[in-house]
Design goal:
Protein name: DNA-packaging protein
Shape: globular
Distance between the termini: 23 Å
Number of helices: 5
Number of domains: 1
Helix content: 55-70%
Largest sheet: none
Radius of gyration: 13 Å
Order of helices and strands: HHHHH
Strand content: under 5%
InterPro entries: Phage_connect_2 (IPR056951), Phage_HK97_gp6-like (IPR006450)
Number of strands: 0
Organism: Dielma fastidiosa
């Protein structure tokens, strides 16, 4: 299962209608945010996957828990950024 499918499962979406206009741009925004914060992006890493899923859940649709999820994402990013030896990004090319 690729990351898009995993994100769709978290969002409880079974159709492809939201892929291009909504989900893929959110995933790309998360990727850029992680890189901007100095984190090496690897969508097969479980911690990166979790950050992407949290980001998408926070910003997709009208989620009543959006603020809590945004804080959770920020905490995940801070934790990854502190693990520079494993997640540090020396390559800022997107």
């Amino acid at each position: 299962m690729d990351l898009l499918e995993k994100v769709k499962c978290v969002l409880r979406i079974s159709c492809d209608d939201f892929d291009e206009p909504d989900i893929k741009p959110l995933m790309e925004a998360c990727k850029r945010d992680l890189i901007r914060n100095g984190i090496k992006y690897d969508d097969t890493d479980p911690l990166i996957e979790q950050a992407v899923k949290t980001y998408c859940k926070a910003y997709f649709g009208n989620n009543p828990n959006s603020e809590k999820l945004q804080k959770s994402y920020d905490t995940q990013v801070a934790s990854l950024a502190l693990s520079r030896s494993e997640y540090g990004n020396n390559d800022t090319i997107i």
